[in-house]
Amino acid sequence: MEMPTDTNPRATPRRKRGPWFRPRILDAIPGYNRQLFLKDLGAGLTVGVVALPLAMAFAIASGLKPEAGLFTAIIAGLLISVLGGSRVQIGGPAGAFIVIVYGILERYGLANLILATAMSGVLLFAMGFFRAGTLIRFIPISVVIGFTNGIAVLIGVSQIKEFLGLKVVAMPADFFGILSTLFKALHTINWEATALALACLGIVVVWQLGIPSLAHRFSWAKRLMLVPGSIVALVLATLCVSLLQLPVETIGSRFGGIPSALPSLVWPDFSWNSARFLFIPAITLALLGAIESLLCARVADGMTDERHDPNQELMAQGIANFVTPFFGGMPATGTIARTVTNIKSGAHSPIAGAVHALTLLLVVLLAAPLAQDIPLAAMAAILMFVAWNMGEWREFLHLRQYRLPYRATLLAVFLLTVVFDLTVAVEVGLVAACITFIYRISSLSRSEAVPLADYPDLIGSAGTGVAGYRLYGALFFGAVKLIEEIQDTLPERVLVLDLKNVIYIDSSGADTLMDLARACGKSNVRLLLCGLMHQPLDIGQRCGLVDRVGAECLFPDLAAGMTAAAR
Questions:
Q1: Residue 258: is its pLDDT beyond 80?
Q2: 43 in a structural domain
Q3: pTM of the complete model
Q4: I need a surface site. Which of 311, 448, 451, 462 has the fewest CB within 10 A?
């Protein structure tokens, strides 16, 4: 992979400490020219075409009107690109939010969904402002894969109603309720809608798999790769419905079409009582948005030899999620599929993301009436394909390669996401991951007795009543038992501890060492510490351990300590 240089237009020098708010678009302005703009223009138009069906499909699946997805892609997409910390990331509605948004809408209503989204925007901005962007990377991959696969399953299950054209008055939000409702409504299946959905799904799959193969053999097929399969399926399905007058539900029959006008400001009634109950949903939206956007940005970094600013990205996400819901939008985040399309289409700067948003705006203003006959079954087929691509299904096949804690965490998060709630799943996953991490680190910490025969100076009477131990790893709350075991078997005269290989001591470890020093004092046993340096030395000085033991009992290495013990 070519390393970025000063002559590479994509290369950006790494800033050690910069302004607290600096959008990446400012770094793209120097040297920007007509040629780069044409690249951004082409990429933005391409991504706009890709985003069109997805934005509407995500909104409909979330229980909102299709224009909510379009308004989100326009407003949030523009704000995230212009204010974000990545050159090429595309923001907008995402499939990961479908389950969460639908649950909030069913439980609290549209006005409170607006409030929860705005609250999540404030939380996201605060996370970026306080430089917490890098902390998101500490979430274990098992937790991320678990809830991503769980969300993908829920998206697929939620689209069965539209895929089969079932007549359901109200769809519950819980998994078993959805399955029960779908089973009871199977007798209302619409075979025309089912056939249309299967045809659309087949078109998307064949287009996704077949066109790249043709492009390797025929030059003309490369042009077809610029058109997403979802658009082809949507256009053909709409033509079938219009020409054949198929008895299936469309955007027009359910929602009355899409307004061909700019979104207007919506200011719902706010109350503290609502805010109290929406705090947990807002946290869920914020965490999910942060994880999705930063994972997407890391994928983009790997494809562009670029490094994004995670804190700036979170602040941009926060602003977008605070502004968008007041204009009829829904939660937004970075989207991997559209970002990858943007990169492969030759995007150079955030201008491409702005063009993508303006492209969707022109579609709303000029071509909204054409969406009247788009069948919902076709949208369901597209979302099912998105859900399949969204999941990391191969990880289930590879579980045998991993240890039991990884497998247990991934499966637990997956099942909890599907059966219960994403918030509960992530909480349990993080707790399980923390416990696993603590156990592993504590198992790496160990102590071993020092053979006195290795130190001839101690052979004979001088070695009587002397014991030495080497400690390894981190001396923290999960490994204090090592010190407690030594304290239970104190020697008669001198105890030598070699701490040279101890890399970290926390407050619990320091407190346990102080207890050991006090126990040695009561038993008239000299405590000699060897190799105490760096962080362990610092905490030993701050907690009073060094003062209690005395400078004369500190030695640079074990050999010096054992020699002193023989005196």
A1: yes
A2: yes
A3: 0.77
A4: 451
